[in-house]
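Annotated sample (chain length 368).
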Amino acid sequence: MSTRVDVYISGSIKNEKWEKVYEDTLKIIRAFDLATVDEYSLAVQKVRTVMKAKELTGDRPHWSVSSDFTTLTGGEEYRLYRSFKEYFPQREKDANYAIYGVSEELALGENRHGVLRIWGGNTKGAPYTLAMLCCAAVLESELGNECMVCGDISLEECKIATENAKTILKKDISLPRICDMEALYEAIYYSELKNKVELFLKLYIGQRDTALGSFLGECFSDDEITTCFTKLFSMRSIGSFGFDTLFRQYVAMGLDLNRMGAMFKFSDELTREIRQKNALIKTLINMGLHIENKQKVEDLRAAVNMNMVSGVSRSAGGSEIIKRYIPLEELTCLLENALGDKAVNVAHAVKEYAQIYENALNEVSKDA
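Output written by the structure step:
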């Protein structure tokens, strides 16, 4: 289960529009068996109170949720106020769209003028997370660009939450933009934000596959894509888990491997340079690009992820399914062009690592 639902809102929202959406979230809250759990000290004892989640009236009407009555497990409180003035005392007509706030939070933007993050607490994966995701989907669907949902959430959970919201409210609710390539791109495209490719990749929670790679190629230039990945690869050490994960995603998206030479920066120190280049060759071979039988590659990937095979590194695992096929000879040429000089005998290294990978494939096949 997800552990954090982030919601950003723009100060340009009209109070009447906000209250209408607030009423819809109240219907969501009432449909789930939710609770607010408080803990406070009384003398030498800690007292825990559990109250059914509902709208609390008074000077500042709102609802709050931090648990559920079924499990009584929970995390940080999620609260929503009826009046938009609780967030922005004066409506800011010239406020930026909500995505500007997300961009600044990810250190990719310069100006979040008039944007506020109202949710983002740690739910610890408790069941009430799904209800909060339902509410978040409703907020974004009905407020449009004036609201943005993201966080530690999965595509499958977003789909479930959106379907639940549709059922409860009996009207159409859109998936959060982070689930939809076209909707997310549109939000980014019409902004004046820089680093658009990086922002897109950091927000989109769908599969890293050829469909995504094709979409990137249609929407962004080769230079924009190369610049983005050059930056991302430069923040990771070649051969590290972070590098292997990103490189596997790059390959799974079907992006151009001829760009490797331009994207990777190798050490000026010879011993380290050799180590880095060997690590790069090993990582690429361990993706099984040169194996035509992709079912065998998938079986090995699953075995590596479950620590059930020896002799092959963790780069043979990962969550992305790679369906590309590149003959070993072509792969060798790609690597020779990318690595440039003679610091490493590419052909020899490819042959060595390919044999190790083949041995691992045979080991998994034998145990099947």
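Annotation: The first strand starts at residue 4 and ends at 10.
Annotation: The chain has 14 helices and nine strands.
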